[in-house]
Design a protein that fits this description.
The chain is of the alpha/beta class. Helix 1 crosses helix 4 and helix 4 packs antiparallel against helix 5. The radius of gyration is 14 Å and the shape is globular.
Length: about 140
């Protein structure tokens, strides 16, 4: 995708900066590096504590916007509320940003793998959401 082609960006929102960064690293590694996929963690607060920050989420979304939409995956309650509030404001996030209802780790891996194929936002969202059906036993 380095030829200027538009691609889906992915933002991972967690209450912990370390969790968001680790899940981003894991997803890219499990996707074979997925070198061209724009993935940004948005974890914790601006002061480095636990929580969520609308400013960090907005900055992460802007940093991964490659013109084909931004998929945002969240971990827990207030992360979801933070993203929903930003989407409701309408001007804080890039156009065609979606909150994806998916498990955080498995959904992130599926989203990155699918985005690496050049898939559109709907396909990335569907792949991440499908991760709810992954069975472990």
């Amino acid at each position: 995708m380095s030829d200027g082609q538009q691609s889906v960006g992915i933002v991972l929102v967690s209450h912990s900066a370390e969790v968001a960064a680790s899940v981003a690293e894991l997803a890219k590694a499990l996707a074979g590096g997925a070198g061209d996929v724009a993935v940004a963690p948005a974890g914790g607060t601006a002061s480095g504590g636990f929580g969520t920050s609308s400013e960090l989420v907005a900055a992460a979304a802007a940093s991964v916007d490659r013109g084909a939409g931004v998929a945002v995956l969240t971990d827990l309650g207030s992360a979801v509320l933070t993203v929903k509030a930003l989407l409701a404001e309408g001007d804080e996030l890039p156009d065609d940003t979606r909150l994806v209802d998916a498990p955080f780790v498995e959904g992130a891996v599926a989203a990155v793998v699918t985005a690496a194929t050049g898939a559109d936002l709907a396909a990335v969202e569907a792949a991440a959401a499908e991760a709810y059906s992954y069975r472990k036993a």
